[in-house]
Amino acid sequence: MARLDESARGVYLIAVTPFTETGALDLDGCDRMADFYLEAGATGLTLLGVMGEAPKLTTDESATIVNRVLKRVDGRVPIVVGVSSPGFAQMQALTGRVMDDGAAGVMIAPPGSLRTDDQIAGYYEQAAEMIGDVPFVLQDFPLTTGVQMSVPVIARIIKDIPTCVCLKHEDWPGLAKITALRKEGATARRVSILCGNGGVFLPEEMERGADGAMTGFAYPEMMTGVVENHAKGDMERARDLFDAYLPLARFEQQPGLGLAIRKYVLYRRGVLANPTLRKPGAALDPLSRAEVDRLMARLEKRLKELN
């Protein structure tokens, strides 16, 4: 598989991690999940992201998940792997294992202790030194990490570190940041910008200059449909599709419950054998499940109307 580079575009779906009812890895579920994402039109997959419950996995479990999905995908799309960790030794070890298995690149989020631009830039310089020539995605997700990345520090990282090939943009509000980064001369070279936050701003992000999405949603067809229609120049169709999915996408974005909702919907769609989150993790109560069921029914009705 070719390595990730600055031309990355489309939809790199953030994969969930399937578990059995007891919290063990569900490797057969990994196969079904990979097949589902590919059938939905994924350009690539991103494993062990925030919504992949990466912090709940051992290093061996993480490597096992990646190896299983890589074998199932069999080179059809590139695989990016989240390798963020408290220390560089673990990051270096996991990066080496997944790249040897055929991953296209890795994703690195900053630790929450970073406060200044110099600290942020210095951290990524050290991280890049530890993983060598492996291309990486710079994850800008202040709502989770607590780290505020300014446009100048992102531009500095892009200029100083050639292996930074993609920005995973998840600032919120963040549309102005995309515009600033896409302004002529803002960065030393053009890198890919793939956006997160469950795709709830995707039409606007695409029109601001993003190259696609790197996020998850239980109906990935929404994101692939928006990106595809944007590429065709048909933003009216893109917005019609987006609007149909928005109530459920909004519901899934609830802090604390979002992943439980996503896994429940994937369970309802037959992708997951059960909606288990590994502990500690929230579970949906009966009323919440009923609300999701209602949103799914309304979505299916609206999609039929849109044909």
Structure summarized in a few sentences:
With 307 residues, the chain is an alpha/beta fold. The protein is built from 12 helices and 8 strands. It has a single domain (10-233), classed as Aldolase class I (TIM Barrel).
Notes on the protein architecture:
- The protein has a single domain (10-233), classed as TIM Barrel.
- Helix content is 48%, strand content 11%.
- The chain contains 12 helices and 8 strands.
- The protein has helices at 27-39, 59-73, 88-101, 117-131, 142-145, 151-160, 175-182, 202-208, 221-232, 235-252, 258-268, 286-306; strands at residues 10-14, 44-47, 79-82, 105-108, 136-140, 164-169, 192-195, 212-213.
- Helix 2 (59-73) runs parallel beside helix 3, helix 4 packs parallel to helix 6 (151-160) and helix 10 packs antiparallel against helix 12 (286-306).
The CATH superfamily is: Aldolase class I
- The CATH architecture is Alpha-Beta Barrel
Q: What count of helical segments does DSSP give?
A: 12
Mean pLDDT: 96
Low-confidence stretches: none
Number of domains: 1
Distance between the termini: 36 Å
**Proportion of β residues?**
5-15%
Main sheet: strands, sense, barrel: 8 strands, parallel, barrel
Strand order of the largest sheet: 1-2-3-4-5-6-7-8
Properties at a glance:
alpha/beta; 4-hydroxy-tetrahydrodipicolinate synthase; 12 helices; 307 residues; TIM Barrel
